[in-house]
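Friendly challenge for the regulars: who can give me the structure tokens for this chain first? No prize, just bragging rights.
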Amino acid sequence: MKVKISLTLTLIVSLLFVQSTILAKNPPKPNVVVIYLDDLGYGDLSAYGATELQTPNMDVLANEGVKFTNGYATSATCTPSRYGLLTGVYPWRNPKAKILPGSAPLIITTKQETLPKMFKKAGYQTAIVGKWHLGLGAGNVNWNEHITPGPNEVGFDDAYILAATQDRTPTVYIKDGRVDGLDPKDPISVSYKKNFEGEPTGKDNPELTTMKWHHGHNNSIVNGIPRIGYMKGGEAAKWSDVDMADHFLGKAQQYVRNHKEKPFFLYYALQQPHVPRTPHPRFVGKSGMGPRGDVILEADFMIGEFMKTLKEEGLLENTIIVFSSDNGPVLQDGYYDDAIEKLGDHTPAGVLRGGKYSLFDAGTRVPFMVYWKGTIKPKVSNALVCQIDLLASMASLLDVEVEATDSEDVLSALVGKSKKGRKELVLEAGSKTSYRTGDWVMIPPYKGAKMSWNSFVETGVDTDFQLYNLKKDPSQKNNLAKENPKKLAELLKKFEAIRGTEYSNLKKK
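First reply, four minutes later:
Bragging rights claimed.
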């Protein structure tokens, strides 16, 4: 009897040893989650120096992972940055990669290399939950039928999205190409050209609104909020603005619970703090800064709850979390919501200059963290990294071949093993571009307004060259172009080698 027990124990120990050896040689593939916020500034997190707002859950990702001080989106506006994130291609290479209306066709081709396609090559399940804003269909979308192409056709197995932005029509959720909860007896019609007969608008019927529009947002009224674009029908499918954050959280949590048996890639794209800022009642007034501050606290809570779900499902230590924002901060962006009046001592851009829509650094330098509990050691990194680098870097992690146009493999920097990131980066605001390399940034001359008329942000546009040393002058107060012509010429040559010479709307002298 003792001999049998001894043999059994020996066999079990041997099997465990073999299993551990196999796992050591072929470790389980980590899940990857990209948490992407909308208009969150470099100075909006307490981990990045905010003193008037406390963001404890975002801070965990920053303080217990790699916190980048030189992490960039590709663009100072939303659609282009999302395009760069998912394709690894500079958005200025695609003329269609501009801020899109809700009725725009898909701007990523179905043949294009994408982040989710790369993960699928590695055997991953893929999903998006949240904001899309990269177009749907091929033009003239019928919202009452299956909408294609969309996220599912560019690599996502599962997609639960809002088509564009919270302030644009259609104000419905779309699940795998179909409007969620649509009553076929109440079809949806959407137009960005003219209103539908008998439908009230923010411009003509201000008495029906609960949020006052400042500019542009004066078309169809949904839930008391005037929007960009016109919409008719689909009453049962319309979202509740104050419940949107909870709704997306629920979908992200559900996805994790249902897909935990195999490795997954989840793109969790929150809508905060983009306008209209509509915090759930339990967050109203929590920040003391009005709705913008409240929705940042709301987003922080959602991230904390999502992290709890990963922990509860036993996935936290085998999940890489990449956190960032699509562009820099903006206060006034279409509605009167006290974002300026109640700002107090808070500085959304931190020490940086500019914001959303701007060529100055706050337009594209954003919070950027990579967290992998138990694997990545806490570190503050000055390495230059960009969201377009996720494609090549994750492909390197998983040993997958990809067509990387502009994406660079900076995996060692992302996981904190190297101080070196990419050497150079072309950044964008609107149709204008700038160049970052080392500690230097160069902004070529352009014709245009120096202030954004609708959001009170410095555009960074000037008819003269601008040259700044960001290490010594992060607030970009001292233009060194005239006193350092040699450095300017050096950067211009490198910039034009990437961008070409036809980059400015200003005729060369």
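The chain has three domains: 27-183+238-415, 189-232, 425-499. Residues 11-25 have pLDDT under 50 and may be disordered. Your move, everyone else.
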